[in-house]
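Q: How would the structure tokens look for this protein?
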Amino acid sequence: MSLIWSKDKKGNKNGKKGPYTMFVVSYYTGRGYFVSPKLPGLKTVDVSSPEQGVTVAERLFREYLEILNR
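A: Here is the predicted structure in token form.
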């Protein structure tokens, strides 16, 4: 089960499942790229590129679903 990715006007990548945004890959000057989860209990993760952010978000989403399905 993977997320559907799109890019907004600011350049952020949004990972969605249906109409809901689950993760956002953003860039801020001075901080760099990071993944911002919109799911409860998950914290932001620093990454080196948008592509790595998508990979990390996909992995976090799979692990999150595994925990919920236990």
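The chain has a mean pLDDT of 95.

Strands lie at 4-7, 13-17, 20-28, 32-37, 45-47.

Upvote if useful.
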